[in-house]
């Protein structure tokens, strides 16, 4: 007996995850080296050595009662202060530990914020293409998702005018994911400023805060000479959701945080409510050992030049094969325009060449496909022939 | 701007957690050794040595991409098979890995099950005294909680007749927590059989399954010669939520599982839906390193005789002081009858003696208080004088 309300989730059950399973099956049939799986954003780079060192230190030198026991629901004070100090150093912000809540990854960070903000009937705005789980999560709290159509004309940057048209008094959250999954774009300062202007005006008109929920697990993954705008500099009511999944290659560990700027609306009260929401959502606290690990790895990073080379090499292979693609600026995704209107045709044709990609319709943006390039450079190199064959089908 | 729907959570915000913070403050003022904090169930025993060994092995010998990367949303296949094998060995059950979902602790296990089962307007039944978070979690999915009043006459075992009276066609879940938090009781086979009989009849009458959600993080913590009934032996539609928080002293790590018996309604379909729910609830998967740790610690346990001695010693101290208490059979709680109707008076008087306890009203059972004895035996011994003083206030 499964809830009726589960049906839309089951029908639309993650295309990306289905690909992940498909990839594993194909690897068994054709051999792992002959399958070019660009479907899942499962970081291929090992965590930096600091992670292993930190685990050994914590496991062998610290008090197990501290390492594995309950702490305050918001997380260890030392970890939260380390996050605050690190943000302050990098962005000149004024966080302290009472502005930081450790969470079970960014997914949980977003859920906790949504639980804190949404009453049934409220709304959030997202910009297509977008990570569809955003809408599923909002639905858990009775909130509806308004999708702003893709802004193809401007490199898929969010269109402030389209945002303005989408707003109404029920909108409480606008999600921005920058660097972006799935396009690999980095939104410009001008875009962020224009969005901030639209929202400030709307806040005044409606008489209540509208939060920018800044989902930024790819913050450090940048391959071009372009700054990732730090959104609280542009807009007070910004809530940050972060995860170390990508910067430290720890996606399985589910470790992230929420940062609540002091200048955001009723910041202290919001923090207290979000801590309660963290418990009420069922997670109690972020995994304890991993909190202590990231505390010791604040300045560590995976080998980002490796991904940068992947970005360049894959872009060249794909465009050499005749495809039209966005230059990846950040994250680890290449966004390709499908030569046929129904991009699922392209996905199927690619599978014939043992290439796995995700259709843009999984991100509410049909006509495009996403390739994850967080895999080995050797796999990317080996895929060249398959891409060339695929290109021949469409471009002769 | 905090959601109106958060208000009941904020007002009722965990009494237990407030005590936890209070205890830390008092320890600073009076010295840690002079505060007798029986408030939180934060296991005081160190994890067994197998945990440390497993972490060292996994961190230093295994592939970091496997250890920290994404796996199937349900968890590592090897971990799920190990859980299945362990259950089969102990209970003669027939689980395999496709009946097991690894979760972010038991809290998340319960949330995932609720998300899978509840449509808005559905109901669950709980037996007072009960862990109030059950009701908060159900509310996330639009479900209402029916509280069956405490069965004081029969050692707080659930009363099957009262359950019968509480049922209606909207009830989809009945939660059983055995060994029980907060009473320390172990429900008898006869009680479980009688509950199963009531529910089988109701399933027939209403024409749909009613799940027993068996929340059993205290399964191994037993201090008397009494078997903890394995509920799937009594009732097909039983879903198990487990956590290693207590048996391995890993409460901060958030590692647990859901077990879905093959004979439960539409078991396979339910498994698939629950895996999706695990993602839709925002957790994606259980923390990866800890999955691999528990896989290697299936037969390990904390030092249960230590808790058993605590149970005996605290029971003696408290009853010697004149209080009426239930003999703790399992879990790590002593349940005391308050000598005054408003047990918050007792809690306040105890605080004067630097004893922290949790009022029964936090479990929907006023007139009682809960003491956690998962602390050091030395603290329990040192608390004797304070309890004697407290007793004198009421019993002269």
Describe the structure.
Chains A, B: This is Pyridoxal phosphate-dependent aminotransferase. Chains A, B: InterPro entries: Aminotransferase_I/II_large, PyrdxlP-dep_Trfase, PyrdxlP-dep_Trfase_major, PyrdxlP-dep_Trfase_small. The structure is a homodimer of 396-residue chains. Chain A is α/β, with parallel strands linked by helices and 396 residues long. Chain A folds into two domains: 4-48 and 302-395, Aspartate Aminotransferase, domain 1 (Alpha-Beta Complex), CATH 3.90.1150.10; 49-295, Type I PLP-dependent aspartate aminotransferase-like (Major domain) (Aspartate Aminotransferase, domain 2), CATH 3.40.640.10. Helix content of chain A is 42%, strand content 14%. In chain A, helix 3 (49-61) crosses helix 11 and helix 12 (304-320) runs parallel beside helix 15. Chain A is globular.
Question: How would you summarize the topology of this molecule?
Answer:
The structure is a homodimer of 396-residue chains.
Chain A: H1 7-11, H2 15-30, E1 36-37, H3 49-61, H4 64-68, H5 77-91, E2 100-103, H6 105-117, E3 123-127, H7 133-140, E4 144-148, H8 160-166, E5 171-177, H9 189-206, E6 211-215, E7 238-243, E8 256-259, H10 267-280, H11 288-295, H12 304-320, E9 324-325, E10 333-337, H13 343-352, E11 355-356, E12 358-359, E13 368-372, H14 377-382, H15 384-395
Parallel strand pairs in A: 1-11, 3-4, 3-5, 5-6, 6-7
Antiparallel strand pairs in A: 2-8, 7-8, 9-10, 10-13, 12-13
Helix pairs in contact in A: 3-11, 5-11, 6-7, 6-10, 8-9, 12-15
């Amino acid at each position: 007996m499964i809830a009726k309300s589960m049906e839309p989730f089951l029908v639309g059950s993650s295309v990306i995850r289905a690909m992940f399973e498909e990839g594993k099956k194909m690897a068994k049939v054709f051999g792992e080296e002959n399958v070019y799986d660009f479907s899942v954003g499962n970081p291929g780079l090992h965590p930096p050595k600091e992670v292993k060192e930190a685990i050994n230190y914590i496991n062998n030198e610290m008090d197990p009662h501290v390492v594995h026991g309950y702490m305050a629901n918001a997380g260890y004070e030392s970890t939260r202060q380390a996050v605050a100090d690190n943000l302050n150093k990098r962005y000149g912000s004024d966080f302290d530990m009472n502005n930081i809540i450790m969470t079970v990854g960014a997914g949980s960070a977003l859920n906790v914020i949504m639980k804190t903000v949404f009453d049934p009937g409220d709304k959030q705005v997202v910009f297509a293409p977008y990570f569809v789980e955003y809408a599923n999560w909002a639905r858990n709290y009775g909130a509806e998702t308004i999708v702003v159509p893709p802004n193809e004309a401007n490199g898929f940057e969010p269109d402030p005018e389209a945002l303005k048209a989408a707003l109404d008094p029920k909108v409480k959250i606008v999600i921005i994911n920058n660097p972006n999954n799935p396009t690999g774009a980095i939104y410009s300062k001008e875009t962020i400023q224009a969005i901030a202007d639209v929202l400030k005006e709307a806040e005044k008109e409606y008489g209540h805060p509208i939060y920018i929920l800044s989902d930024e697990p790819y913050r450090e993954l940048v391959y071009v000479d372009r700054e990732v705008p730090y959104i609280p500099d542009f807009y007070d009511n910004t809530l940050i959701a972060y995860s170390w999944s990508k910067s430290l290659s720890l996606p399985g560990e589910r470790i992230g945080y929420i940062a609540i700027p002091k200048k955001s609306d009723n910041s202290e009260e919001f923090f207290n409510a979000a801590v309660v929401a963290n418990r009420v959502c069922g997670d109690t606290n972020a995994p304890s050992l991993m909190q202590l690990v990231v505390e010791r790895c604040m300045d560590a990073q995976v080998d980002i030049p490796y991904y940068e080379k992947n970005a360049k090499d894959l872009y060249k292979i794909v465009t050499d094969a005749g495809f039209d693609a966005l230059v990846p600026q950040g994250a680890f995704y290449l966004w390709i325009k499908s030569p046929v209107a129904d991009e699922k045709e392209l996905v199927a044709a690619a599978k014939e060449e043992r290439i796995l990609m995700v259709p843009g319709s999984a991100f509410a943006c049909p006509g495009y496909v996403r390739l994850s390039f967080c895999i080995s450079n050797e796999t990317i190199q080996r895929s060249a022939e398959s891409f060339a064959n695929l290109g021949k089908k469409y471009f002769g």
